[in-house]
Amino acid sequence: MALVFRCRAIGGELTTNDEVRAFRWAAFADVPSLMDEAYAVRVLDALRADGPACPVRQHDGVNLVP
After folding, report:
1. Residue 59: beta bridge partners?
2. Half-sphere exposure of 43 (CA within 13 A, CB side)
């Protein structure tokens, strides 16, 4: 399962912990090359400012399933 939330930073510092090994800022165009399609599509949906993300997408764990 993958959940993606659209948020905005309002302060503080990013830190690693037991659930976060690393983090980075990425441009919209870079997202597909950073992760498998099944996860990238959720991040891209969340980054689109023109409406809500698609709530459910079928995938095989790596790729979207039509």
Report:
1. 64
2. 16
